[in-house]
């Protein structure tokens, strides 16, 4: 047994729908502004920008039914996203082989301290303070490709207290799942356990304590989270 000088942190895992097996998480990649309408609402032209990514930490992922309102902010936004879980990886993955590396899919929330992210943008600083805080990514159980295939179209919707806030379709993604995997692999060596959050439709908005967010991605699953 290794002689660690401190106790090693626990492995972050995600549940599998209908199974007691677990998916271990290695890294979390998030694509920015991957739906045209959301890019426009954030003040950008989606037709002129190559894809870009930021990261959350594996232990930012949570699987409970509550989201603790984070400190040092007065403007927390919801962002519903489909999640891609990889079973293998590599470098310079060809586009036509990219989906071979996918284990399954889920959905989640890229919760964002928008005011802190905005300050970071203005100062030309990284986004982690707005994106990678504790409990910032509530996620659903994963479903394997053998159950759901490779979803390329279908409703993406988030309601807050019963009112639709975000509504889109997976086919509106500017960069599709195979393109994301291939592009990322040109810059990083992808591996089993990597998770990709695939972007959010327009309609992002603030939440407050007591709000209930109900999320749905057609063919993938559902997630209900209360802000506490």
UniProtKB/TrEMBL annotation:
InterPro entries: Fumarylacetoacetase-like_C, Fumarylacetoacetase_C_sf. Gene3D superfamilies: Fumarylacetoacetase-like, C-terminal domain (3.90.850.10). SUPFAM superfamilies: FAH. Residues 28-228 form the Fumarylacetoacetase-like C-terminal domain. Keywords: Hydrolase, Metal-binding. One of its GO terms (molecular function) is acetylpyruvate hydrolase activity. It comes from the Bacteria. This is FAA hydrolase family protein. It comes from Tabrizicola piscis.
